[in-house]
Design a protein that fits this description.
Elements: H1 2-12, E1 15-16, E2 22-23, H2 38-42, H3 45-53, H4 57-114
Antiparallel strand pairs: 1-2
Length: 117
Amino acid sequence: AAIDELLERILRGTFRDVHGNIYRPDVVRLGSEEALSSEARQVWVEQLCGRLLSHNPASYATEHSDQQQAMRMILTRMRNIADTLSTVQKSLHEARAEAAEAAAAAKAAAASGDNSP
């Protein structure tokens, strides 16, 4: 029961690596089925093996293909986001440069106006 309590805390919790990124550790519960909680049963080695063995080659190939397609879509979205971010950064840089030029011109104009008799 104490092991399952600890396991449940791990499964419900969030963890951070040394870089501050959130991750969920991979865990597997070993032991007899008798004392397993419902949360611990999800990561029980017998349950995990049963799920893997229940796939026939065709369903595995379909699932693998689906996962590859999902990854391609995610990568495409990431590239689009990166492109958008790059465009926004470029526009921001140009706007800052224009603002700096305008401020310098205004300062020069004010300085030349202050020197007039």
